[in-house]
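Issue: ligand-bound run for iron/sulfur cluster - logging full I/O for the record.

Environment: standard queue, default settings, no custom constraints.

Inputs:
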Amino acid sequence: MDSVKLAGLGLTALRSNFARLDRPYKLTFSITYSCQSRCLTCNIWQIKPTGELDLREITAFAQKNNYFKWVEITGGEPFLRSDIVDIVKAFKDNSKDLYIVTMPTNSLCNPDMVAGRIESILQLGIPKVSITLSLDGYRELHDKIRGIPGNFDRVMGMAKRLKEMQSRYRNLFFVFGYTMSKYNEGKLMETIAQVQKELPWVTANNFHVNVGQTSDTYYKNSDMQLRPDAAGFVGELDQFLKARRPEIGAIPIVENAFLKRLGYYIKTGNSPMRGRSLDASLFMDSYGNVFPSIMWNRKIGSIRETDYDLSKIWHNSEAEEVRKLIAQGKEPGAWTACEAYQTLVGNIWSLIV
Ligand code: SF4
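Outputs:
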């Protein structure tokens, strides 16, 4: 059954190479903008959100749009929502071909509570549940970037719990999510080495690397200058790629293709290929506003105004206008994991060369 769902995801992604899809297969959904972190790289923590979608509304959305194969839950800190298990369950119950749910955590919530919620999500029977533990540096550096003393040790504690949980749940995957910025320039390999001292089973393959992004819509940080020095970044990325051992499987292939093009993105500020926004994927914020991608501040509608039916937004004139811009190569450059994976599989040649 899991392999059927994986094949369904693969075939849909493959189809996106040759034809416009009639509906998206990936949803990126910020379920809350609440966050107890104090990151130097992001202003989400300064938002005090009110009026976010409640569980009834999210369930209505999941029922009316029951075709997602991949749901990326994000935040804020998603585990601050006490109904996170029910939110994931709403998608699992309605999207029968759902193959993967991914979500990050800053590891700052009560660890027993987070572990309990993750375990409940794992028991829903989704073939793949992937958790990203945010980690931007070794102990002192991570705590400084995140603005929370002791955060590094909390990440280590959560990693130990997830490792133990993996012996009971074959559908659990997790990585450390490292966001490169001017604040941690040149510190990636040192960070990996310190994590290995705490957790000897960790390798470079357990790290996912991203570049700090700026965005009005999402991080609310467009006034920040986060980029690391391009030449230094490329050298650091090269070292990291060499430290990763080859792995078999669709996800490692896509991950490597993503990493190989990260240097180009840093040097030029452009995405290396045309994106698949509003074809394969969309971003929805915690109020139900729909955007082409997490980085593009161009709202195309609100599910609160369409009785939670995405199809009424998907085909509206604003969406068509945005698709024309994408076809003309005018999508703002944003090589983030949220967008790049479906872009890579929608440009299948990029996985071969
Ligand atoms: S980067 Fe994540 S943890 Fe940090 S403030 Fe933004 S949402 Fe919170």
